[in-house]
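Chapter summary example.
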Amino acid sequence: MQTTSTIKRLALNFYFWIFLAFGVSFTFALVNKWLDPVQKHNTVVSDGKGYYAYLPGMFIYDDINFGFNQTVEKDKHTETAYTDYRYKIDKKRVYTRYYLGTCIAYAPFFFGAHFTSLAMGWDADGYTAIYHGSIVLAAICYAMLAMIFFGKVFDLYGIKYWVKVFVILGVYFGSNWFYYACWESSLSHTYSVAFVALFWYYALRFKENPTVRLAIVIGLLVGFITLIRPVNVLVVLFLPMLFTSWSIFWKFFTEKILNWKIVASTLLASGAVVSLQLFVYKAQIGQWFIYAYSQERFYFLDPHMFDFLFSFRKGFFVYTPIFILSVLGLYSWYKKSKFQALWWLGTFVLITYIFSSWHMWWYGGTYGTRVFIEYYLFFALPLALWLTQLRGVTLKIVMTIACLFIFNNVLQQYQYRKGILHYEAMTWDMYKDIFLYPIVP
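The structure predicted for these 441 residues follows.
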């Protein structure tokens, strides 16, 4: 009886579930990353190499033009998949297209690995297995931080406790979020989702108490979200959704936000963070700004919205089907607040249009639609609001469907890691042949 009582008390503690999610994630990383002779050297790969390079460049090699890419990375660490992330204006001016924010998020874990290596007398060159492992741990910890603030946000929206736990864990394990936290941990998205959750929590707090201190916090968060990926600044488009009508939002905006102290505090805080990238450019190439992505750009007259959402190549709803329920949940939200539901829908359509206009709308060899991970709080919210309102048989049906979607996604992540689900070129014929098969049929 005492054991049963203890389990019940633990189950009523939200942090118990966060700890459980951490334990599952850590165990997955331990078995599949740290104990694997190949994978333990292959976390900081692909785009992650470009994000990460600032840290050894600044703190080990004193070289922000990344000459060690050709020596330490290419020649010394042949066990790690090599990427040349350098872009050259001329022989002396070399930069990388990857922005500074993600490496700042890595930094505490990088320094932990670096000082441990120095203390133990290990090779402290920035690219041994312990450094790769530190980035996996970083991504998992930021995922847990995000889930904690998802919970805080849900509390402010009056979400039921069991719904809060189910939706947060369901979104984490039932989408590609878990995959990018525990497998491709060096990509930026897991870090972005944590800071977006922080941003929305403090925006809710600011709405109730618009102080200069909170304005500075929000400015710092918006600046850092932008410093991770500049397109992340689109998150501010959701702000009117804090209110139940446009007129209430506009009144708050004109009376509370358009105050010189609030405006100055927010802009100075966000500008100070974003300016870090400008100083790096100045040090690297002698100029304050460069469009780092060179010839890659958006084609706004040729969006691929349907492909982006529904194709078997990378469709958002194909590889994260739990969010189909989020869209269905808008009807319940609409009955409660027409403005908030319609603003959510309009913002979703707009960011879909923007992301699907990128020259490579499928975003390369990735699992699912990774560029939406940053916005998972906003996808989780209508689902949580809907489940809070449901009762009886309808609730049981929706919960059953959600569980099936989560199971399917966990299986698809396994298929992707094993090469059963192709990393870039899936088709309907290929998909139906492997559907629900843990191995190649």
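To summarize the output: The first strand starts at residue 86 and ends at 88.
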